[in-house]
Amino acid sequence: MTAPSLQAPAPPNAPGRRKEHTALHRLAAALFGGYAFTWGFTTLGVTGLVALGIDFHEAETALLLLAFLVFLPLFLWAFAAPSLARVWALLGGGAVLMSAAALGLQQVLLG
After folding, report:
1. Distance, CA of 37 to CA of 40 (rounded, Å)
2. By percentage, how much of the chain surpasses pLDDT 70?
3. Distance between CA 91 and CA 109 in Å, rounded?
4. What is the C-alpha separation between 63 and 19, in angstroms, rounded?
5. How many Å apart are CA 56 and CA 67, to the nearest integer?
6. How far apart are CA 46 and CA 24, in angstroms?
7. Which of 36, 61, 76, 82 is the most exposed place for a label (fewest CB within 10 A)?
8. CA distances (Å), 7 to each of 4, 15, 97, in order?
9. Which segments of the chain have a pLDDT < 50?
10. What was the pLDDT predicted at 84?
11. Are the CB atoms for 39 and 102 separated by under 8 Å?
């Protein structure tokens, strides 16, 4: 009969725990980053179409239908991409840039 070995619990930064955190970070990037990117895409698209003379409600409907086709690949890509930093940079950066461009275009249209 062998004596039971007493092993200390795994430290919080053990390799197995990193995988759990990475999955949570990827889920957050997929949901929040994908939503923000899609929102920026939609606002920029609606503003651009209105600037071209299309009725606001028609532009809104068209872009909200396209939003489903934009969000799904972004959501899936957030899990397939090799670099989590690249996912956050693209989704966050794209969201900020498109939202800023839409805001600027709205100011031009209203002013």
Report:
1. 5
2. 82
3. 27
4. 36
5. 16
6. 32
7. 82
8. 9, 17, 50
9. none
10. 93
11. no
Whether 91 and 74 have beta carbons less than 8 Å apart is answered as yes
On whether the CB atoms of residues 39 and 95 are closer than 8 A, the answer is: yes
Structure tokens at 102: 């839409």
* pLDDT of 19: 67
- pLDDT at position 87 is 95
Instruction: Give which of 58, 35, 51, 64 is closest to 108, Cα–Cα.
Output: 51
41 and 73 Cβ atoms separated by less than 8 Å: no
Task: Say which amino acid occupies 8.
Answer: A
- For residue 21, what pLDDT is reported? 79
Written as one letter, the residue type at 71 is F
